[in-house]
């Protein structure tokens, strides 16, 4: 078997993928899809925000804020610009809250034995969030200082959620709130490490728009 040919073919597939991701039509499509998801997300959190002290409003709607960060990243890409702090915040929070929502809905499914169709929709959309944040990593231009800000944001959010008890409300799994808080803390750490590996590390893949 000609392994060099297979390696060449794999490289061409990767390049084709990233060429598609950099296409303005794809960027606009993702912008519109994420805009719709962001609006829906803030509406979904509306009932919780009504019961939340104003001091915590910024930190309660986790997932829509993550996708809002990515909207600004996509907007910058469309303008052929980079906003490193926003890129770092987007990558860390997209992965963190994308995986978090999938895990919480799976936990609801395990506890209740069933999940409404909205739960499956949330799992699919949040998994897409986590994936898109990583897929665009080669285009990001953030450094250590930008990632540090994103790390502080993510961990500070965990304190707001599980010390001040402002976490997204999943009543069916509230009994596991301690375990969920512990899981979320380590998910924050993993998200920061992945952002470092794919967007900051000197051996990471670097591409231009």
From TrEMBL:
Keyword field: Membrane, Transmembrane, Transmembrane helix
TM helices/strands, residue ranges: 26-45, 57-79, 88-111, 117-140, 147-168, 180-199
Signal peptide bounds: none
Domain of life: Bacteria
One Pfam family this sequence matches: DUF1405
PANTHER family: DUF1405 DOMAIN-CONTAINING PROTEIN (PTHR40042:SF1), HYPOTHETICAL MEMBRANE SPANNING PROTEIN (PTHR40042)
Name of the protein in its database record: DUF1405 domain-containing protein
Organism: Heyndrickxia coagulans
